[in-house]
Amino acid sequence: MKVVLLCALLGIAFADPTVYFKEEFGDDWAERWVESKHKSDLGKFVLTAGKFYGDAEKDKGIQTSQDARFYGLSAKFDKFSNEGKTLVIQFTVKHEQNIDCGGGYVKVFSSDLDQSDMHGESPYNIMFGPDICGPGTKKVHVIFNYKGKNLLVKKDIRCKDDVFSHLYTLIVRPDNTYEVKIDNEKAESGDLEADWDFLPAKTIPDPDAKKPDDWDEREKIDDPDDTKPEDWDKPEHIPDPEAKKPDDWDDEMDGEWEPPMIDNPEYKGEWKPKQVDNPDYKGKWVHPEIDNPEYEADDKLYSFADFGAIGFDLWQVKAGTIFDNVLITDSVEYAEEFGNETWGKTKDPEKKMKDAQDEEDRKAREEEEKKRKEEEDANKDDEEEEAEEEEEEEDDDAAPEKDEL
Ligand SMILES: *[C@@H]1O[C@H](CO)[C@@H](O)[C@H](O)[C@H]1NC(C)=O
């Protein structure tokens, strides 16, 4: 409905987007999502817009609520294959807790996922989203399962590490290309075959080729005409000519006197002939390549026969991440539009609210600091007064005033 309306409003004709799954998390979210029971102490997701947000209702998502826990939650949808179609997986992540270590990704499974037993080893088709652990790991995972193996993207795609909501989008196209967008802007793109190890290398070094024995790879050689000068060899150390036998030296007691050794200023080190261009130099030998007999082209790397579930299978040290606006569709335009309508509308007011809170916190801290200072000063005054009084008392003792007598 919304899509039709939007098309009409904008006068844009979307190529009839198919929405396979869409979740904006309202009060009834738990009816659609199943908690894994693989472990008894999995962390709980709770519905909340968080500490700051753009819209108190619309920005409600599910938040990890317990520190140092595994989380396992999934939802099913009607089974589909992306063969011959574009696939878009998109959602928002907000690490409002200022995450130190924890996953922020989704896994998209085939329809036979055993939801109540979902766990880290449950086979999936695609894993996508941010992962942060310390300063060393801040990346966007894009993992494809291909013939039973999980293949990691070879490029380093950096994720956002601030406390705000961010939109993550993965686009996989039937021409075997992909694109990762963050906040509706391209973060990475390329060929599936080039950026994952789906297939073995197309060519390999020819196992039958061998560098000829007489292949000369030396660019420079010793100059055959260069010879060592006659007077080259000098000892490295010589007795110090300035040293004198001490007057009180007793040859019988101290042994025969020998002057200390010093560096010989005439010593030239080891002689080496000059280097000249090697007339027989043939360049570096390049191992010839041949077609890899193991290589078999596959024009359907992008394609999965069966998608049917999406889930959060996470470990979080510091909980507080909010997931929202999950979308799986075949339309890049629709996903962008949905991103605009959700994250796009949220981001500025969310930032404003956070800035206002920070400002309040700052003021409160200043206020507290001021109070603390005032109290400190007051205490100091008291102490000084007490000290003065004590002094006075001492004076009093020494010289009692008249009217006290
Ligand atoms: C989403 O928003 C951006 C920025 O305002 C705009 O350029 C783009 O056209 C929008 N996309 C759609 C599909 O409406």
TrEMBL record:
Give the intrachain disulfide bonds. C101-C133
Q: Which GO cellular component term is one of those annotated?
A: endoplasmic reticulum lumen
Principal location class: endoplasmic reticulum
Start-end of Basic and acidic residues biased regions: 205-247, 265-285, 344-375
Q: Where is the signal peptide?
A: 1-15
Q: Name one Pfam family in it.
A: Calreticulin
The superkingdom listed in its UniProt entry is Eukaryota
Where are the annotated segments for Disordered?
A: 193-285, 339-405
**What are the UniProt keywords, alphabetically?**
Calcium, Chaperone, Disulfide bond, Endoplasmic reticulum, Lectin, Metal-binding, Repeat, Signal, Zinc
Question: Mind telling me which PANTHER family this protein's record contains?
Answer: CALRETICULIN, CALRETICULIN AND CALNEXIN
- The name of this protein is Calreticulin
Give the encoding gene's name.
calreticulin
